[in-house]
């Protein structure tokens, strides 16, 4: 007895063992087809009784186990069914012979035997034999079941006879001693007559009868016999048989208590046995109703209740039996099987702890040297039993041991497939699922060391199985899920082997389905590298699409009549969470930034990293990156081009690491920060590239302006210079450029700028549109810098303190008021000059000493560069942004445009300064001289011209005065647009505005230009901004316009000619342009002669006589009205006479400014009367 | 005394496991892991008892050829498992009990640390040295 049957259970004690075997050559398929049919007949109700016979079929049974048949009768082979193929009558005798040989093997114990012959036809089949059945083929054998039933009945008859024979054999004087094979030699020469021996014989026989009763379906009887046997054997210390008797008692009790069976779950064999569970249950329940009514044998009920063990007792008795068995080394198999049976019972009783003790015991039962196969079987069954009692971990442990046993080095042909299968079955025991999704929830919690070992074994087994895809999958799983637990060395080893595997079989994202139906989900490497943040990037500012704002505000598309409703606001907020408020453009490269880091202790090479998107056709441009060992957060930008329009969602990214492709979805990534992953893709727009004639600028403009500038150019200009900026517009996109708008924005500067800084003509450029892809258009912008030409205060001071005062009023004082606030903000002011207005004497001297030359009293004053050092710092910069709004293609249809900004940085160097301005009255009242002190602040020789006639050469740092004769202006006639008037609320502003307009007018008249011949640069110089009120007044025509007409000819500066003796008509005409009426006035005409030596001779009564009065009267003149008074003069001598027209003191209105009463002086030349 | 000490969370994953012959750590991992079956079984059997009467000490979980495995469960279902050499006969039940009690109080100290996240692996130095002291006495 050496081969344990691990499938045994307690109720097997009541079965009859029938061996079904093939003889001769018969295909396995056919044999098992018949075997299956035979074994379906496992339960037979015996005729005329309520007893049920259970049959256990085996197709293989070791004959040495049969030798233990006396010890426990269910181990005895009582029936033999042989199945054979026989196609010709010729073979028949041979076949039949074989059947007999087969019978011999189990001959000693067989009750009966059968031979099923398939294929044979003819007369042989006609012979009526009970032990042989003939069937033409394997299909045509309906009577097999019937045959078996008959066979079993015949078995029953033998069994019953044996039982009766043994049971009633009490009187017989000689009871044979039953013994197990290894005992036989022990009893040689024993005194067979001793009481002890007899008792032993009796006890063993009782036990045997008990077994037979149990098999014959007489449970109650068997219990009685077992009890008696136990008593007998206990008294003689026959431990082995005592154990067997106790076990028999237990089995009978188990059958009674658990009619559904104890091994039902594990043994497939039992399934057939439990096909009639309800009936079986009824049959064994005491007092239960049977099909025949109440069980009539009431005495049996009483006995059963008494003899039957309680569930607790069953275990105790099992324990006892096992302890007796354990005394015998040769009974190891019996002990082991008893343990297994007890465990099955305990499993039903749900007493796991005790069951585990039995199992623990079973583990230690040392059988003879087991073959590897038996070891595997043993471990598997232990695992199964542990599973049965709910010890999943222990079960997994043994299953793993079994798996390892499959591939033990001693085995010549390791069963890697079986090993792998068993290993897979251990997974639940180690609470390991092969789905990486289960590991995404936070940190992994489990028995990492144990799980890692198991995974390693899975990898190894699958590799040896010859399935590299599997091993790659397992290895990826190991790396992905156990990364935190791997040591640095292990990480290296694992990745090394992974790379080796993937070189043959790259890892994929496909499900791997094992033959037994287990599905291995793909393992994306979300931790190699670890992604911490995903951010969709907006397009660069120059490519960002912008929506043309339509008049109808599209945002207010809500159906609600309310302006604000919290519900709508809430909805919007939700939407915002998902969608990002910028757009991507079809056909343009879009970027997503990932913050990644490498957890590995070595450089990680990630290849083919790209984006996974949905919603829009997206061409992902994969990147390869190499992350340094244990890097910190590392930005990675993944790019792609949307090919269609719509809403795109970035779902994740894909990588290839160590040869394993991974699709990592963002939803499955733990601890990832994302600011939305959905963005709208709008139709394609053209792309514009700008190149300019100017050099690029290193310094960018202040970013505070909000615009992002793509290109910066810079230029250096002298104040007043104009330069052309040629901009080349190239369409580098795929769509035609259809529309272009250019706007400029001058960044706020403290400088006052005169004239248009930037000007352009768009029409010429637009004429080239639509601009096809790859085509270039040019666009010209004129840059004109005209800053204040007034000079700095400190320079001014030096000049003014020289005391040059031209027309009697301090010219510079109003000028200073303008300049002062600006000067104060600049720290260039020397401390001594903090009070520039002070005409302090010390200061004066100092400046005189400082200035080399100061020629006073001359109209042209040359000042050397006394103030040049501070001037050098007064370099001004002007900054402006040119915005190109352009659109085209399908994006234009959708109402999108792009904005490209060009930053313009202009450094303005001072060219000339007007240090001082003043006026001198000209000979004509309608004209005056404007005196400008021009200072050359450049380092080059410079020429200045005004009204393109006079050219003044100025050396570097030289200051000269130039006089320009100008006509007086009639400012009042300037039209002021009514719209402007309304805008400027305060009169101050209005006045300022007016003054500016005047400045502009004057400047255009003056047309002051400078030229630097050495640099070949020219520019304008503007006097706007230096003209103060006083100067302006001088330049202005008075509102009261006086005209003096001599002989009807207007006389202003030139002398009017007349003849001596002829009366000369003198008319004084007043035109009132002021808004009120003036007058009346009284005028007196005083003639005088100028001797050109400062002496005026007024005593001309002899030379000039008035015709009429010398006093004229003018009536009040209404606004825009005109009035004239007439008189006449008579010159008596030839000569040059001047007429001074004077106002009478009292008639002159005090409130009117004196400059209004500026009458031209009349010069009359009296000539000889013509002879 | 002890050759392996393990602290196992309520959800049956190890919070702390340390064994003396470090070269064969995995063996102890397996041993402690399988012992959890018994612990679970004992706890479920104990479940019916009143909480305050509950005995925290679970006793011998199972003996192996070379080692004995003892268990202890706190009221919060945190398990302590200790493996001792079965050749060490001097070790009585009472000593094992007191060792578990020491372990428990040290574990409580770990829990009192405000910087400790319940459920994380125990990395306390004090706990470690206490376990070491329980192990060192073997040699």
TrEMBL record, chain B:
Keywords tagged on the record: Cytoplasm, Endoplasmic reticulum, ER-Golgi transport, Golgi apparatus, Transport
Keyword presence, Cytoplasm: yes
Record localization: Cytoplasm, Perinuclear region; Endoplasmic reticulum; Golgi apparatus
Membrane-spanning ranges: none
GO biological process terms held by the UniProt record: endoplasmic reticulum to Golgi vesicle-mediated transport
Matches recorded under SUPFAM superfamilies: SNARE-like (SSF64356)
This protein's GO CC annotations: cytosol; endoplasmic reticulum; Golgi apparatus; perinuclear region of cytoplasm; TRAPP complex
Any matching Pfam family: Sedlin_N
Signal peptide: none
Record family assignment: Belongs to the TRAPP small subunits family. Sedlin subfamily.
Official protein name in the record: Trafficking protein particle complex subunit 2-like protein
Protein species of origin: Equus asinus (Donkey)
Gene of this entry: TRAPPC2L
